[in-house]
Amino acid sequence: MLEVIDFSKKYRNNENYSAHHISFNVSVGEVVGLVGSNGAGKSTIIKSIIGVLPFSEGEIKVGGFDIVKQSEQAKRLIGYVPDDHSVYEKLTGREYINYIGSLYGATKEQKKFITDDLAKRFDIAYALDSQIAGYSHGMRQKICILGALTHNPRLWILDEPMVGLDHQTMAFLCNYIKSYADDNHCVLFSSHNLEVVKNTCDKVVFIKGGELADIVDLKNTENFDLNGYYSELNGGEHDA
To answer: Fewer CB under 10 Å: which end of the chain, C or N?
Structure first.
């Protein structure tokens, strides 16, 4: 579903690459974690995948569509939860969900599922008719998650999705991510929470200094010490 092929990104007026020769894929049914220290290049990779950032070299394909040459077709397959919880604050939660859904051509049934069913499960249904400007940090994160799911995207991408969520919601989100992937979708998310990554992901892509350090298949690796391996890759440092 997602193919990142020899991807490199260099920002203007910067001699060094922010991401260099990165290759990995996410298949249907998979949950893949993107892991690395602060500044490793995770957000650069994600924002290039969703088509926000132009990149220097390589290819990115979503569902077989090139994110550069066939951007509209590729982007329609993606649901994205940003790390900064960017939302339209003057809208109510319900208006925001309906607006995002309309942008992606979501059906009435799809939007109704989000507002009538999933909002209850994420414990934010009570606030859907309140203006987002009055939402707490965690509530904004929840409404971003719901907005990203309005069109039932084939590829769900989340950048640090657990930040600001209470423990109960975090546990529910982890379970929902796994069930969503199992339902003929796939998920890519970045996180510093290695316990969440270990318990949720099928595969982990390790990024260090803008380069691919390793890819570990957790499904076929018993008793893998994710914390210890991450610390080893980063010279004994662990910022998670």
So the answer is: C
